[in-house]
Structure formats: structure tokens, C-alpha cells
């Protein structure tokens, strides 16, 4: 720093604060502002029924429109939002927005579908999740059967008793529950049996390397058999090719999601997709 650059900049170089910490603080502050300014938006990724080709769901995936050009992916800000607890407010916005959108789709005449939302651990452990969800459903008029909540195995395993209690309440309301990224966490078979869930989402890492990693075929086959044996539906994530789709169909997998069907879409594009998705059905 030269002297001419003046006094005003000195705070930025407080010796106790390294660049990482500063970046973090700035990002944290910006995330808070982003929520207040309405800079978050949702993209929606279609999910199709592998028996009929019909669209059955849309997963809501958050993005941050920081300025006109930059669309920031959740991997870049969700972890910090989780650490700081801001995810609770962001998550409530996601729920509200996705439920409102799904209701709007139904009113516009789209075939009824579930909107799936990703929950973070903090939201799950808040204590008032059930209340918030109930309130948002009432406000938006969305039938609970058209809301899907996704939790990961790691969230579910943090406090098994809490998980079971909360999931039971959500399920009693008629909400659809799925376990996201299944196969990458540490749930045991006995806990899985005790979790009142509807579906397992097979993690995309298994689907991506079905042919390069021959054991993935065996894993996917077993997970589908296990899930069905427990009375659950199976959703495959990250389906990118027709070969993967056909393989999953041959194993009786119920639902598929991935770039082969569609990338996550803006609200407008998702609406279009919903209306023209019969085209997909004809391919089946
Ligand atoms: P996820 O819930 O497992 O979502 C699937 C991710 O895989 C999405 O990434 C999606 O765009 C991507 N994907 C879908 N199909 C394919 C495919 O065929 N190939 C490949 N390579 N990728 C595919 P995205 O949107 O970047 O989201 C990443 C993660 O961020 C999500 O993983 C979820 O854990 C988290 N996330 C997204 N939105 C939210 C949110 O509203 N709240 C919370 N708490 N987490 C969120
Ligand atoms: Mg998900
Ligand atoms: Mg996933
Ligand atoms: Mg995930």
C-alpha cells in the first residue's frame, strides 16, 4: 500500500484479518443483502415417471443472481449460509416460492406434479419446521401431496429420534419425503427401515459411472431392489444418456431426473416444459 492511496483503505488491511476471513465476511454480508434484495431465484429440474414418460415432479434448485451476468450456483454459497444459520431464512424463502409456483402451475392447467425442495440440517433441527411448512401450505393453497421434501442421509442420521419424529409429522400431513444423494451417507439398514420416507434418490455418482465402474451397476441394482423391498419408490439422479435411462428402466426404477431429460430450467422454461412434456411420453 502506498501512502497516496489514503487512509480510507486501511481497515481492509487490518493485520489480524487474513484475506480468507475477509472474503468470508464479505460473502456473508452479501448473502444477507441478497435475501433482502430478492437476488435469489429458483430453477426447476423436471422428473419423469419411467413407466409412462409423464412428468411427475420438479426439483427446485436455488441460484443467486448477483448481478446481470453472474448466476451463482448453490455449491458456492449454501455451505456458508448453513454455517451462519442464514439458511433458515433462505430455506423458508425457497419453500414459499416453490409452493407458490407449484400452485400457480396447477391453476394454469399443468398436469399436477410434486415440487421437491432440499432441506438443510439447520432447518430440520430448528424445531418449528413442521409449523412453517404447514403455514406455507395453508397460505399458498398447495395440497401437501404435491410437496416433496428432500433430506440427505447425513441430516437424517444426526439425531435419529428427532428425524423419525419430524418425518412422522410431515408424513401425517401428507407430504412426500425422499432421501437425497442416497448411497453416499451412512444410514444403516435398520434406521432406513424406521424412517418414514416415500422415496430414495440414488446419488448421481453411481449413475454417472455405470459403465466405467462396473460395480456401480451392482450397487444401483441392489439399491433399487432394497428400496422396493422396503416399499419405497426409487428416483435416479444425474441421468445423462439414453443408455443410463434404459438400464434404469430395465431394473424397474420409478423416476428419473438428469440432463438427458432436462437441465434445471428457469421458471418460464419449466412452465413450457410442463406444457409440452407429452412429447416425452411418446418416446416411451
Ligand atoms: P442435489 O439436491 O443433489 O441436486 C442435484 C444437483 O445435480 C443439481 O445441482 C443439479 O443441477 C445437478 N444435476 C442434475 N442433473 C444432472 C446431470 O444429469 N448431470 C450432472 N452432472 N448434474 C446434474 P445444483 O443445482 O448445482 O445444486 C447442487 C446442490 O445444492 C443440490 O444437490 C443441493 O444439495 C443444494 N441445493 C440446491 N438448492 C438448494 C436449496 O434450495 N436449499 C438447500 N439447502 N440446498 C440446495
Ligand atoms: Mg436434491
Ligand atoms: Mg442429490
Ligand atoms: Mg444434495
From TrEMBL:
EAL domain mapped to chain residues: 24-278
Protein name: Diguanylate cyclase
Amino acid at each position: 500500500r502506498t501512502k497516496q492511496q489514503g487512509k480510507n483503505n486501511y481497515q481492509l488491511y487490518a493485520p489480524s484479518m487474513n484475506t480468507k476471513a475477509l472474503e468470508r465476511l464479505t460473502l456473508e454480508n452479501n448473502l444477507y443483502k441478497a435475501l433482502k434484495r430478492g437476488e435469489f431465484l429458483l430453477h426447476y429440474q423436471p422428473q419423469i415417471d419411467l413407466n409412462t414418460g409423464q412428468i411427475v415432479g420438479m426439483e427446485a434448485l436455488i441460484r443467486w443472481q448477483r448481478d446481470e451476468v453472474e448466476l451463482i450456483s448453490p455449491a458456492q454459497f449454501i455451505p456458508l449460509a448453513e454455517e451462519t444459520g442464514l439458511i433458515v431464512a433462505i430455506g423458508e424463502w425457497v419453500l414459499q416460492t416453490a409452493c407458490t409456483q407449484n400452485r400457480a402451475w396447477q391453476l394454469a392447467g399443468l398436469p399436477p406434479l410434486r415440487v421437491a425442495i432440499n432441506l438443510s440440517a439447520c432447518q430440520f433441527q430448528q424445531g418449528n419446521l413442521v409449523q412453517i411448512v404447514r403455514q406455507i401450505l395453508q397460505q399458498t393453497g398447495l395440497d401437501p401431496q404435491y410437496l416433496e421434501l428432500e433430506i440427505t442421509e447425513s441430516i437424517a442420521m444426526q439425531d435419529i429420534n428427532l428425524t423419525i419424529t419430524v418425518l412422522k409429522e410431515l408424513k401425517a400431513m401428507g407430504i412426500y419425503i425422499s432421501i437425497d444423494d442416497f448411497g453416499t451417507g451412512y444410514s444403516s439398514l435398520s434406521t432406513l427401515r424406521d424412517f418414514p420416507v416415500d422415496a430414495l434418490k440414488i446419488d448421481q455418482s453411481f449413475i454417472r459411472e455405470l459403465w466405467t465402474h462396473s460395480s456401480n451397476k451392482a450397487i444401483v441394482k441392489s439399491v433399487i431392489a432394497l428400496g422396493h423391498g422396503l416399499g419405497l419408490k426409487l428416483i435416479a439422479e444425474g441421468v445423462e444418456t439414453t443408455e443410463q435411462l434404459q438400464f434404469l428402466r430395465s431394473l424397474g426404477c420409478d423416476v428419473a431426473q438428469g440432463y438427458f431429460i432436462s437441465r434445471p430450467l428457469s421458471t418460464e422454461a419449466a412452465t413450457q416444459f410442463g406444457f409440452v412434456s407429452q412429447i416425452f411420453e411418446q418416446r416411451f
